[in-house]
Amino acid sequence: MLIEDRDPEGAIEDDAVNGRMCIVTRQSGTPETLIRFVAGPDGRVVADLKKQLPGRGCWVTAERPVLEKAIAKKLFVRALKKPEAVAGPELADEVDRLLSVQLGGMMNMARKAAQFVSGASKVEQAVRGLAAIATFHAVDAAADGVRKIDQARKAMSFVASDGQEIPSFRFFTEAEMEGLLGQNAFIHACALAGQAGEGVVKRANMLERYRGTVPARAVGAETGLPTQ
């Protein structure tokens, strides 16, 4: 089940008044481009990815350098109106971990819904059949396997209605995925059309935006591996 982008009654009354505006850039955004933060009872600032935690919240553009600036300038104290609000440098790593866990959980949901498949041959078949909406590879996947699927992505862009290549993501090593997904870890995988599959892509876009990694291009390892 996908997390709905709505807030429980009374949970985010101040956000509704102030609107979704980054406390660093002062620019408005959407739930896909901003992360909500609140201060817990102990004053520690935490990320509210589900946008459901009660109390006063504030928003930060979903990019790690922006969050690090908010931490360095102690902007959470003013935004949350809590002098005791604590946001240390470890918060940036914690957000990365939470976004990764959220993505992994959505991948598992999509797999149960038959909207996420793994294995090089299955992925290539799904891409060539125009069923895949995004591909995923382990950072340490063999270049040849990635290249074959990239070639399929490029080839299918010529017959797709919008003429666009489907996106491709490389976030985790095989070992990292085993820790994240357990027996569902993969080397090559793809999300398929449907609510759950689209949820995977939505969360992958958020993590990619946060990390500032370069999207994989068709045919090529020219872009290199994303920075972890």
Summarize the structure.
The protein is about 40% helix and about 15% strand. It is an alpha+beta fold and about 230 residues long.
Kindly list the characteristics that best describe this protein:
228 residues, alpha+beta, Hypothetical Cytosolic Protein, Chain: A, 60s Ribosomal Protein L30, Chain: A, 2 domains, 4-stranded mixed beta sheet, 3-stranded antiparallel beta sheet, 8 helices, elongated, disordered C terminus
What do these coordinates show?
- It is a single chain.
- By secondary structure, the protein is α+β, with helices and mostly antiparallel strands.
- It folds into two domains: 13-88, Hypothetical Cytosolic Protein, Chain: A, CATH 3.30.1230.10; 93-211, Ribosomal protein L30/S12 (60s Ribosomal Protein L30, Chain: A), CATH 3.30.1330.
- Helix content is 41%, strand content 13%.
- It has eight helices and seven strands, in the order H-E-E-E-H-H-H-E-H-E-H-E-H-E-H.
- The strands form two sheets. The protein has a four-stranded mixed sheet, sandwiched between helices. Strands 2-1-3 form a three-stranded antiparallel sheet.
- The protein is elongated and about 55 Å long.
- The model is unreliable at 1-17 and 215-228 (pLDDT under 50).
